[in-house]
Amino acid sequence: MKLLKFELKRMIRSRVLQLSITLLMLIGVLGVILYNIYYADIDDSRYLLLSLYNSFTQFIYLVLAFVFVSVFCKDFQNGVYAWYEQLGVSYSKVTIAKFISILVAVFPLLNIVFIIANLLSGNHDMNYFMLTVFCVNLNIIYIIALALFLSVVFKKIIVSTLVMYGLYIFFNGLNLWLFGLFNPTDSNSLSSYYLGKLLNPSQVHYSLNKVDISNSLLCFGTIAIPLVWIFVLIVSSTLIQKYRRR
Question: pTM above 0.90?
Fold first, then answer.
């Protein structure tokens, strides 16, 4: 707990926390604007949740990638991890504290926005509300896990950030061709397709429309795919760091 408080104080002193909250608010405003442009004429309150989901998942990746990477990477560059080890604090404990500190910076505001949007829109489909909130939270954890993995691999902020953007473009194409199984925060991901398909059965996807997949299987994949990626990225990050320490 002391380590987590210390990392949160570091985020506040470095303005990372304030910047993250400000950017999240701007992304939320953008989601509302996009809803009013594209979906306001449709008599379905759930479209506001879908618009917020798409905005938060895609733009948190694109806008906050540098912020998340810097939280992990700058301590490699500045030798802070070595300083922690001299104090008897393991790398894994520091990483967990950093991971949780980012979640603390993002999750409260993110979920409050969805709750307010659900109340103001008058949506009564609680299953859809819960699914969008659960998926957006999973996707944010995926983004943080990817930032951690790239930070461990490259240890430099600029390189890790550029690779993260490059992967977004690369996975965008793979999602189109390979049934949305890659980056879950992408607009071509299986989760985005399924959440859109629940509201509009004629939702189009280049590869997913070519196969007959039941809604139950799509729902399972929407939840399972981010979980698998999170597990793979975190385990890979741990194994790489352990290998380097030998």
Answer: yes
